[in-house]
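User: What would this chain look like folded?
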Amino acid sequence: MSSTPDDVAPAPRPRRRRGRIVLAVLLVLLLALAGAGLWGVRHLSGNLRTAPVGDGGGRPATDSWENRPVGVLVIGSDARESEADCKLGGACTSTDTNGDVMLLVHLAADRSNATVMSIPRDTMAELPTCTDAKTGTTIPAHRGMINSALKGGPSCQASAVHRLTGIPVDHFAMVDFEGVVTMSDAIGGVPVCVDADVYDTYSHLKLSKGEHTLVGPAALQFVRSRHAFGDGSDHGRTQAQHLFLSSMIRELKSAGTLSDPVALYRLADAATKAVTVDTGLGSVDKLVGLAAEGGKVPADRITFTTMPTTADPKDPNRLVPTPAAKTLWAKIIADESLSRPAPTASSTPGATGASTSSGASSPSPSTPSESSNSTEDSTSGSGSSPSPSGTRRATTPGCAAVSPFKTVKIDGVPMTPSRAYEVGTKKGIPDSDAAS
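Assistant: Here's the prediction, encoded as structure tokens.
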């Protein structure tokens, strides 16, 4: 008897790749602030939470970023620091704060190129001595997961990334759970599409097949869903996040928000309340200045890449950088561009796939034991998704591909997200957009 999606367990899950949506929140924030101009700047600057950047190995602070490289660590925090964060992120039974997403954005000194390097959160590293941001307790230097450095605050996280890679970190920007919700609410919701009924019992995303406009918690459920899409791994989530990002930016522009002072101010006000930055970026004019510097880089010279890693010999559930990672770090420090034409199937047999931000296809999902030094690109959601037999199943263009695997459970019974939707509906569980 041949296997079907309902008969097959999910493929091994690659490490987390949520970075694009965090970067999207920051991007929309910078767009809003740049458009808002000077109106209400003092109030918006007062919304920003700040902390020192610490020993990130950055260059001495100056009044201008001109003619100098700039390194910015973008952090997606899983902190539950407010009642809203607790409700959105799940239980507040743990007091630990970890970096859910880490992206190191490097602008070359001449702005000829930029690299956005994702650092897998499960990477083991030698962490620096830091002071716990909440308790004031000194945390001695030790070996641990790179994302755990955030317990000492974002400055400690910046120091840890610098210590690992050698790449200077001049600034940081940290976005919390609430940031995704406030941004989607401020633009009136983000349109998304799913190609089948879906219920992720972990993120609580529950949507019927077709198009939906997500606001509030529903938007966060969509971008956090790790079991609903593709092969039920973080690769599927990444593709869904790309759809969400593209739709968010498209909605921002089509809704006329950037030309509506009142709507623009509301957007900027919501975003600045959800972001923590270092003191060097602690004002609206500084953030707008940083956005202007990033805007100087040609779009086809911005490269998204993931730090190459392999399984930690001491723990197969953890990662360590490969020799290729050191080569990547050296290139970034030297301001070398990583942009290159996407290889063709005929010229690169057996390759995992690579692309630049100019529009080539996304790389194949990597396993926990390996990571290629390939660039990543937003996907349109069209094409196909993995099937249990290794073939591809047709998906609806522009829609997130719902996983055909048994990636979720109801009452302890494994099932596909589509089957879970049917069971959940019978149990009276409302759809995520029911209140929208």
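DSSP finds eleven helices and 22 strands in the chain. If you want, I can go into more detail on any region.
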